[in-house]
Hints:
This protein is 34% helix and 16% strand. By secondary structure, the chain is α/β, with parallel strands linked by helices. The protein has a 4-stranded antiparallel β-sheet with strand order 1-11-12-13. It is globular. The chain starts with 16 loop residues before the first helix and ends with a helix.
Amino acid sequence: MYQDSKFKIEFSPTIDIKLLTEAGIGLSSQHTILPGFCDVHVHFREPGFSYKETIATGSLAAAHGGYTAVCTMPNLDPVSDSPEHLKMQQDIIDRDAVINVYPYAAITVGQRGEALADLDGMADKCIAFSDDGHGVQSDDMMREAMFRAKALGKIITAHCEVNSLLKGGYIHDGDYARANGHRGICSESEWRQIERDIKLADETGCAYHVCHISTKESVELIRDAKKSGVDVTCETAPHYLLLDDSMLKEDGKWKMNPPLRSPKDREALLDGLTDGTIDCIATDHAPHSAEEKSRGLEKSAFGIVGIETAFPLVYTYLVVPGIITMEQLEQLLVYNPRRRFGIPLGNDYSVWDLSEEWNIEEEEMLSMGKATPFEGWHVMGRNYLTVCDGKVAYSLANCY
C-alpha cells in the first residue's frame, strides 16, 4: 500500500567498520555518508531482453550510483500483467538482485490499453501499477484503473502520451528538429494526457504519479493540481534538468522518450524542482544494445542509461552552484520517493568523496547499456561503497 507524508523515514545507519575495512574503505574526514537513494523508474529488462540488461547487472549499476532501492517497469517479455508473469520477474530478483528491487505491474493486459489487467491479483505483489512506455489512451480505461487502484490502496504511475499527437516524431518539435529536417514530438502529446489524468485522479481519489515530465505545461498543471488538493506527485530525470534540444547531436545517445525539450521547458523544470512541484528525480534508466543506439536520432531505440551518473551530475551542476541545496537533493533522491511509494530505508547507505573529480566514461559503467549524452562530462563525487540491508552491494575497490 502506498504511503503519504506521515510515513516516517529516519536515517540512522549502523556503520560496521569491519565491513568497510573488508571492502577496502578507511573512513576519514573526506568521506560523506549518504542514505541509500531510491529510483522509482528503471528498466532492468528481465525477463525477455537480457541482451540489454539483467537484474544482476542493473542492480549492480544502481548500487554503483548509490541506490539501494529501485522500481522496475513492466514492459518486459512477458509483460508483468498477471500474477504468473510478475512471479517470473520476482524469481529473478530474489536470485540475482544486490539491492532492493520492487516491480511494477501493468495497468492493462500486454500494455495494449484494451483490457484492464488483473489488478486485484497483482496488488500485493507489486509496488504500483504502470503501463510505462505507453500512455493509456482510453479515458474510460484509465478511470476504471484509477477506481480499482484506489480501492486496492495502490498508486497509478503514468507514462503520459497522446498517440494521435505523435505523428511519427522522435525528437522535440522545436528549433533543432525544424532546422535539421527531423520529425518532432509536440509538447501537447505529454501535457494533454496529464491534464486528463489529473481530472480523473480528482474524480476517483486515486493516488497518481506522473513519469518523467519534460514540459513547462506539465509543471504548471501539476503545480495547480497540488494547490487544488489532487493527490498527485511527479518525477523528472537529470537529462531534462541539465540538457535541452539546443544541445542535440546527430547521435542515438541523445534520443529518449519523452525527448529533450526547449530551453524554456528546462527552466520551468528547474523552477518546479526548487519550489517543490517536482517530488522526485528518477533516472528512467533504459539500457539498449550498442547496435540499437547506433542508428542516429531517427532510427535508434528510445532510451539512455543514467542510474550510475545521476547523483554526481545533479550534485555537480545543481547543488555545487547553489541552484538547490544538498538537503533538497536528498529529499528528491531518498525521502520523497520512499514516502510516496512506502519504501523503507533500512541500514542502507553509500560512502562518497564529494571532492573527487572525474569524467563520465562508458568504460567505467557497470550497466550493460552505455548510451549516455553525458559522456565526457566533468563531475564531482565518487562513490566508494554502497551498503544495502547491512550488506555490501558495491565496492569501488572490488569492481575496478
